[in-house]
Write a structure and sequence with these properties.
Helix content is 54%, strand content 9%. The chain has 15 helices and 6 strands. About 3% of the residues have low confidence. The structure holds adenosine-5'-triphosphate and magnesium ion (MG). The site of adenosine-5'-triphosphate (ATP) has 17 residues, from α6 and α14.
């Protein structure tokens, strides 16, 4: 690629002119083709096509993105992570019951105007409970993906440890943003609110935080932002707090059938060259996240070894590795 093209690309990027950007990319493709680099040219063209398709489907493409707007400003910066997830519920392996409940929430959000016309409001506040790696964060991403909304993630534990003393004030800022900017908000490690209660350092602050959260949960949410609180331990939560959620969804380790479905999906084209029965015994007690890691490990090996299939033995070993790791770091 010539320097001239690079300058032009950068300029169009700075100007936010997506069309110009893509047309320069096509010029580069043409140049590559003229120089006999057919494969590179083809790759570039495909990427341009992909960018165009995304633009058309309304998904924010760079250059035109609402990202600067949807990025928390001021004091919330650094506390809130914002992303535009692309996953959807279809890419998750879920029980019928959970899938149905999540789909209903998506539908209510999509048709919120209709609900509002009849004096109803869509479901907005959900508590996601379950062990690590069972799909709570992925659910938040998938809901954001389905609704084409940004996902804002706040780790409450970090908020507490960094700003203890100002936590209530920081939370207020967050709640104001939720009320002003429509999005999916994941309040991760939500049990931090409950677990600091016995903290002798500042009982007053904890009370302020709890009251602030309780009050927030009662406030009407005119933007219909989805507020998802995720936790590994439900026991620690205040009952008054738990009652304020519209929905509580429980996540657990997958059963044999779900575990296989997750592995199969993740292996993709690298199908298992043999019977599943030999790996079944290694599935027990692994979370969705651990299964995905095991699948990724064998796929990577297969790629590097130039194979197109995965041996049951290799998968069995990868699963066993996850089991061993898990034993070493058993959670408290
Ligand atoms: N239902 C599912 N279907 C398919 N893949 C899943 C599912 N749940 C989890 N995964 C996979 O496991 C990974 C880890 O899941 P996720 O990050 O959502 O766990 P989590 O419940 O948020 O855990 P933690 O409590 O540690 O935050 C995901 O990135 C995804 O690859
Ligand atoms: Mg998570």
């Amino acid at each position: 690629m010539s320097t001239k093209h690079l300058f032009a690309l950068l300029n169009s990027h700075i100007e936010g002119d997506v069309e110009q950007f893509l047309s320069i990319a096509l010029q580069v493709a043409a140049q590559e083709a003229r120089q006999g680099h057919a494969e590179e040219a083809e790759k570039l063209k495909r990427l341009v096509q992909k960018a165009r398709n995304q633009q058309r489907s309304g998904r924010p493409a760079s250059g035109q993105t609402p990202i600067p707007l949807a990025r928390p400003r001021g004091e919330l910066q650094g506390l809130v992570e914002s992303t535009y997830p692309k996953v959807t519920l279809a890419s998750m392996v879920l029980s019928e019951n959970v899938r149905e409940r999540l789909s209903r929430i998506v539908r209510q959000q999509q048709e919120r105007t209709r609900l509002r016309d009849h004096g109803q409001a869509p479901t907005t506040h959900m508590l996601l409970v379950g062990p690590p790696g069972t799909g709570k964060t992925m659910t938040a991403s998938a809901l954001a993906g389905e609704l084409h909304l940004p996902l804002f993630t706040v780790r409450l534990e970090a908020l507490f440890s960094r700003y203890f003393g100002e936590t209530a004030a920081k939370l207020r800022l967050l709640f104001d943003q939720i009320a002003q900017m429509r999005g999916v908000y994941l309040l991760d490690e939500f049990d931090a609110i409950g677990s600091h209660r016995g903290d002798p350092n500042d009982v007053g602050e904890i009370r302020r935080v709890l009251n602030s959260v309780l009050a927030f949960m009662e406030e009407p949410n005119s933007t219909d932002s989805l507020v998802l609180a995720a936790t590994n331990h439900v026991g620690i939560l205040d009952e008054a707090l738990a009652r304020r959620f519209d929905e509580v969804i429980e996540y657990s380790y997958p059963d044999g059938q779900a575990a296989r479905a997750i592995l199969e999906r993740r292996l993709g084209n690298f199908k298992l060259s043999g019977s599943w029965s030999s790996v079944e015994s290694a599935l027990d007690g692994l979370s969705q996240g651990e299964l995905v890691r095991a699948a990724d490990a064998v796929v990577k090996d297969a790629i590097l070894e130039g194979g197109s299939k995965v041996l049951p033995n290799a998968l069995g070993r990868a699963l066993q590795n996850r089991q061993t790791l898990k034993g070493k770091f058993r959670r408290r």
